[in-house]
Write a structure and sequence with these properties.
Layout (H helix, E strand, L loop, with lengths): L12 E2 L13 E5 L3 H12 L3 E5 L11 H13 L3 E3 L2 E9 L2 E8 L6 E5 L1 E4 L51 H15 L13 E3 L4 E6 L2 H7 L6 E7 L4 H5 L6 E7 L5 E8 L2 H13 L4 H5 L10 H10 L7
Parallel strand pairs: 1-8, 2-3, 2-8, 3-4
Antiparallel strand pairs: 5-6, 6-7, 9-10, 10-13, 11-12, 12-13
Amino acid sequence: MPLPGVEVDQKTVVDSTGALEIPKVPEHMVVIGGGVIGLELGSVWRRLGAKVTVVEFVDQILPGFDGEVRRETAKLFKKQGMELKLSTKVTGVTVDNGVATVTVEPAAGGASETMTADAVLVSIGRKANVDGLNLEAIGLELNKRDQIETDHSFRTKVDGVWAIGDCIPGLMLAHKAEDEGVAVAENIAGQTGIVNEDVIPSVVYTMPEIAGVGLTEEAARDKTAESGGIKVGKFPFAANSRAKTNRDTDGFVKIIADAKTDRVLGVWIVSSLAGTLIAEAAIAMEFGATSEDIAYTCHAHPTHAEAIKEAAMAVQGKPIHI
């Protein structure tokens, strides 16, 4: 998505594609947007030696993620040397001879300030790539977010036209689109193709990685407020044997379960292996597992996956190693 008043030239001011093609490590990169893409690419260039400043309009990074995860990862990124300017908006970017001047001010209004940078990454979000499809010719209208609406089987309102992936509502993730592609092919063939939209894992490929599936703690509390609330179990990798052996102890596993049924509602992981570990949580949730189911499943030692078992035990107040 473009930012009004900021021109992407793919040289000094780049989008996510241009950020992969910068010919040298920037001395200072300003990242506009503290979401997934901005943090992933910003952290890459930080690890390569660039000074990185992330400007985010709201008061925390990673909008939409679990609140505790957002706070913990902000601490880790600051520890790595990234500067986070939260509750801040960009009001303008000018470029002169390869040097960008970025003007910012408090999101709530106030005095402006400027920063200079030799690279600016615009990463405020993505939108459906539907331009040029000539959908109006068949009477297929877009919704208010310029996306194509479908039913549960991925049919559109126009007979014979189906849609999947980033052009329909939902998470814009390759693995979601892949599963939808399988499902829609099955549906077109007269079979039954289903994608469980409640169990789609998300991964932020920073270091450490950040992964989640299901509900955040905040969303789970709201959803269960009238039915008994939630229970939360958390286990730090600082107490995990494999993580300690690898000297890679940042992060934690957090499991959110329904207080009445014990069914797992959401799992959040911050770890160098979070993207791989989240698959276990997704499988458990797809099968309707309770936290007790995970807690009583034997996990090999020493592995990072033991932290998932211990977080499940912590839901019941019975972790072993903390």
